[in-house]
Design brief:
6-stranded mixed β-sheet; 24% strand; two-stranded antiparallel sheet
Length: 286
Amino acid sequence: MSKLRGDQIYVRTISASKVRATNGREWQYHSRSDAHSKAACWGVVLDLLETCPLFRKHVEQGKVGFGINHEMRDFRMNRKKDLDLVICTPNSFIETKGTEFASLVNRYGVVLSPAEVEALSALPTLRRSTVGSVLVALEAKACMTEHIKACPRLYDELSSSFQTIHGDTKNAVAAAFVTINAADEFMSPVRNRDVGVDEPVIASSHPQPKYAKRVLEKIMELPRRSGEDGVGYDALGTLFVDCRNDGSDVTIVEALSDGTEVDPIVNYQSMIQRIASSYASRFRAL
């Protein structure tokens, strides 16, 4: 398997991100911006291009494209949800300039190393299209602060996603990538919305590793399926990060202070492997 890059690209991109709030202050992460989810999904698709030969072949043949913020509708429940990014059969390709997957690097502010730029240039051109049938649907979420309060909402949103995806297209590969902040302090844009640019920010304290572990436990409760007839996610990935949101680098946390690691069944590597294997088995006749 090729070296996976998406998780490193994600934290590097968030480290360099500058999301401007209404008070003029710039943040690396802001809950009301989708910059983090776009960076996460971009990295997942890059890894899928590198690790799934069938997907890469379909891209070369023009059989698949991608859509952004695509609305999926649960036929049975009439429930709607916009998915961050989907891989799909194209009704038609969008011909305007800057609609290739590689062009999203500048649009999303994705930060690549020289080796990653070279790897991207060697891949076939994945193009944005109007969406025909959804093959892979990606959802990216982050729990950066107020972990305990956020847990029920995070679980409900993720549950709604796979139900809507499979209610719309049963054989679509439903994948979610969840970031959990393991930092013991976080500078919240919401809590600091009335704090001026020249004033000291207010830090939120996180009793770690308790908070990060609780979110991970909740994520592990999400249903997962091993075939098209099951109920749940086809692929689920979780990543611990250290994000203070104070301008310092965002880093990947391999293990919490008490030694807790993300369960191998839902780590980033397993998520990519499951997406790739599900794609290869379900869409070989495309």
